[in-house]
């Protein structure tokens, strides 16, 4: 399928609103990723509003460690959102394949992750769905954060999302979305360096009690560290995974933590200004959707 100047190729995955495929711009000879969203989204007002909100957020973001929106298009049947390509592996796959990641490599990745999160937080944006599966490692070891989403109500069917949720969300309290991001980032860092989650399930635990057991551990405030995690790393993790949200450091404080300064001292990341052209294009797209 083609839609000038793009040709659409292999299906990569399913996205929040449609199918994700690889695509190629014939004019600049660059490969991208595209989410193809059926126009039927207009029949679901709530989903349409979520899409508009997220596409506007993506248009304002321009950071080397966050997936970047580069173009949007529309025809009679679909909406096309074009992002820079993030061909590589998810951090989840990398951790599983290597049985965890050594601290120096983890620090280089995590500094990029926290740089992206700091960028978002300074702009009043919370990611809300940070996990090892929403973080991609490119061939050159650049990190790309993807999948901006919203918290789902915890349930037995919510899978990995459940084990990342901070206690205040599980307990259905009002919560600070930025402090919640810090918790989920902390879970990612723990899993990267330990090759397992902080929560353990006894083999004798009945299947129907597994989620209740995990929730109890999350809300207990007790973190059992892995023997391979250094004291300095444990200090950072204990701060990020504090059961009291107010005690968690913000993203900038994490970037200045001694563990990151020691393990990844040369990872300085600069972000350019938002691309005004894509902001204008997105606003035009929204007007086109409303008028179709």
Written overview of the protein:
One of its GO terms (molecular function) is ATP binding. Residues 6-260 form the Protein kinase domain. InterPro entries: Kinase-like_dom_sf, Prot_kinase_dom. Keywords: ATP-binding, Kinase, Nucleotide-binding, Serine/threonine-protein kinase, Transferase. This is CAMK family protein kinase. This protein is of the alpha+beta class. The chain folds into 2 domains: 2-85, 2-Layer Sandwich (Phosphorylase Kinase, domain 1), CATH 3.30.200.20; 88-263, Transferase(Phosphotransferase) domain 1 (Transferase(Phosphotransferase), domain 1, Orthogonal Bundle), CATH 1.10.510.10. 41% of the residues lie in helices and 17% in strands. A 6-stranded antiparallel sheet has the order 1-2-3-4-6-5. A 3-stranded antiparallel sheet has the order 7-8-9. Strand 5 (69-74) and strand 6 form a beta hairpin. The model is unreliable at 150-160 (pLDDT under 50).
């Amino acid at each position: 399928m083609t839609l000038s100047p793009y040709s659409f190729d292999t299906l990569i995955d399913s996205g929040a609103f449609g199918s994700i495929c690889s695509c190629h711009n014939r004019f600049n000879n660059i490969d991208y990723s595209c989410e193809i969203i059926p126009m039927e989204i207009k029949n679901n007002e709530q989903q349409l509003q979520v899409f508009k909100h997220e596409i506007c957020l993506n248009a304002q973001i321009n950071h080397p460690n966050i997936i970047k929106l580069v173009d949007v298009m529309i025809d009679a049947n679909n909406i096309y959102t074009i992002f820079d390509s993030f061909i590589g592996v998810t951090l989840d796959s990398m951790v599983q394949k290597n049985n965890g990641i050594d601290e120096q490599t983890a620090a280089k990745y995590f500094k990029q992750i926290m740089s992206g999160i700091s960028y978002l937080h300074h702009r009043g944006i919370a990611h809300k769905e940070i996990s090892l599966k929403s973080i991609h490692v490119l061939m050159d070891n650049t990190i790309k954060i993807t999948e901006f989403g919203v918290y789902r109500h915890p349930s037995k069917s919510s899978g990995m999302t459940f084990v990342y949720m901070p206690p205040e969300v599980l307990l259905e309290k009002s919560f600070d979305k930025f402090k919640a991001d810090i918790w989920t980032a902390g879970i990612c860092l723990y899993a990267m360096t330990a090759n397992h989650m902080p929560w353990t399930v006894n083999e004798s635990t009945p299947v129907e009690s597994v989620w209740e057991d995990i929730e109890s551990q999350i809300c207990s405030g007790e973190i059992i560290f892995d023997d391979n995690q250094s004291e300095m790393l444990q200090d950072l993790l204990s701060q990020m995974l504090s059961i009291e949200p107010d005690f968690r450091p913000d993203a900038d404080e994490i970037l200045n933590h001694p563990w990151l300064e020691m393990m990844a001292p040369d990872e300085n990341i600069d972000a350019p200004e938002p691309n005004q052209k894509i902001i204008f294009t997105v606003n035009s797209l929204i007007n086109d959707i409303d008028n179709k």
